[in-house]
Amino acid sequence: MQKVAIVILNWNGLEMLKKYLPTVIAHSSSLATTWIADNASTDASVSYVRQYFPEVKLLTFEHNFGFAEGYNRALKAIDAEYYVLLNSDVEVTEGWLQPLLTFMENHPEAAACQPKLRAVYDPQSFEYAGGSGGFLDRYGYPFCRGRLFDTIERDEQQYDDICPVGWATGAALFVRAADYHRIGGLDARFFAHNEEIDFCWRLQLHGRYVYCVPDSVVYHVGGGTLPKSNPMKTFLNFRNNLTMLYKNLPEKDLKKVMRIRWLLDYVAAWQALLLQRNLGDFLAVFRARKAFRKWRHDFDLDRAVHCRADANALDARKPYSLLWHYYFKGHRHFSQLPVNALRK
Questions:
Q1: For 226, which of 15, 26, 109, 343 is 20 to 30 Å away at the CA?
Q2: What is the DSSP annotation of 230-244?
Q3: pLDDT tens sequence across 166-205
Q4: Cα distance between residue 284 and residue 324, in whole Å
Q5: What is the reported pTM?
């Protein structure tokens, strides 16, 4: 069994591999084996890796299974104590892996952790997809230490403490293999977006913890799969976020939260149309809510399994509304939000 397997899921990411795979090899090979799991790329990704990085292990799939199922299939085939799910557009730094491994070895209660993410194109700022650890507000809106909605902070070491978080980014997710498989891995039905948040929430419902370890720093390009304003991305984000809430919310909160989200989602749709002149995103929100209604009962068994009464279960959400703090109280930095532990 390998100690650590770094697994990069690739789909037509040749240019990213050329740019960032060398840093992974240079700064990780003493502690980990690197794998490329290829989602049926039609570019020269596979031949490039075979030619220039023969030490990298390759898995090739016949179809593009998306982020979630692609990783599930890859990790079933890899025998390791720890996995690192690493995006192809991540530039790692010297010594990045050791703090994560050391932390996990010394904290058996931890199922997963992430490094601190900075932005490749603005290296002194946090990166949108992970910052210094992620959280959810009470209505399911994700945010990070270092990023609230579209407001991104400069990294001035203000969030350099190791702390439990609500979710760790899928761009650089360090996870125990036993925990990954115990809860069934990523939910392949999501295809892409919100799947790592759902995964981390489920870990906590089973009494496990997720952390950010900012002693480890990586740089992330972000948005490598779909542009930020892409209607398909909007559709997946809304559909999957609603599904995640339905799967994991405590029974006492489910009806209230879903009623409020019904209102907030339609406000977001009309805002996209009237203020941003974005017909694609407007329609995507309606399609997402329709798709959620159509398939939500497919997740009833998930609720029964993961939302059972458990004295050790953690609620991955903060107890307040991020919308209220951001838009009505003018709080733009994570440090301005109430200090709350994860809720039991």
A1: 26
A2: -HHHHHHHHHHHHHH
A3: 999 999 999 999 999 999 999 999 988 999 999 999 999 9
A4: 24
A5: 0.93
